[in-house]
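So, read this over?
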Amino acid sequence: MENAVTDAIRVVALGNDGDGIAQTPQGRIFVPGTVPGDEILLAAQNGTHGTLDRVVAPGADRVDAPCDLFGTCGGCRLQDMALPALLEWKTGRVAETLQRVGFDTIPAPQAHQVSPHGRRRVDLAFRRVEKQIVLGLHRRRGDVVDMSECTLLDPALFALLPPLRAMLHSLPAVHARGDLQINLLDSGPDLLITMDGTPDANDRRILAQFGKAHGIPRISLQGRPPETLALTGPVFHHFDDVRVVPPPGAFLQPARAGEAFIKAAVLAGLPRKGLKAGIIELYAGCGTLSFALAEQAKVHAYEGDRAALACLKQASGGTRVLPALRDLNRQPVMATDLGKAAAVVLDPPHAGAGAQIAQIVAGRPPCVIYVSCNPAALLRDLMPLRDAGYRLDSVTVIDQFLWSAEVESVCVLTLPGANRRNRR
């Protein structure tokens, strides 16, 4: 039941989803659109959630949102908070997570933040509305908002949106709606489309013409596996100096700068001695970290997605990367192999590393470097390592999901006394 609230209340913190937290006589509530320090009035309160009426007195970290779509488009939740304060909050989230893990000491985190207009990967939705195509992101728990501006996207991707709207409008296979994923590869934008109709020869012709006109070498249809609808040039991307051919919809770190920060933290965390024993990399993808790691040692790179593994395998000739297909949830790399490595590097999906953690604990490799995009999974996965005696040597926090609650981190853990020849 919603109740009107007439007294001003103060926002004291942010919740994990980025909503402000305020204390009322009825208890703690979450209020979207607020930042710590705000004095606010509520339009209504429903249980633990409040609806903002207005900000009576802004907090020190409140700023004017740089995008006019903020509050409507669902892409950004925290544009009304200054970026330095946002990085500090995300760094605090990671530090709090590590404190909950229970490490005896937590090193001061190194923190990095990417710049606006640097996002090279985006998932959009589109709808036919009257005689036009609406193309953009969903409003919070709502329909698609047309992306008429964006402070996140790389300018090359944003410039593609107007011609995309015109092309999708002309495409017979688009009846009412669909989705569009774009990766900005070194070869140009790579499109993966979901449509509510079946594309025919005319649709393919339209897509091929569009690709040629706008420097888009490949346009694919979502499926298992995806189907290439138009191929007008070579598709490629580079990880370090190695050229790869990513499959449609391949995972990329959202920003080049974010990828560089992660890679630098991982390389800095490697042992300085004993690397002849090699590195085991789990969840290797198409090679985001693999080839950089291979400059330091032989890398046994495991990946469960067949298309990504094929990409990695094709590019690995002449390098020290040894790719292997492995569903790490059903068939984790075993402790006997992990224990022989100088270091284990893993960048698991959002849900975490699952059954693989128990094998790492049992194998007791001297160094574990964990790349995380989810503090909850980080907490769950690091606890067994802490219990096994691992210490936390360094923490790096990367904000490459600007104006959102998402945060990336790199944690370097070592096991005192394990394989001393591999220790720093």
Notes: Confidence is low (pLDDT under 50) at residues 420-424. Residues 121-244 form a domain with the OB fold (Dihydrolipoamide Acetyltransferase, E2P) fold (CATH 2.40.50.1070).
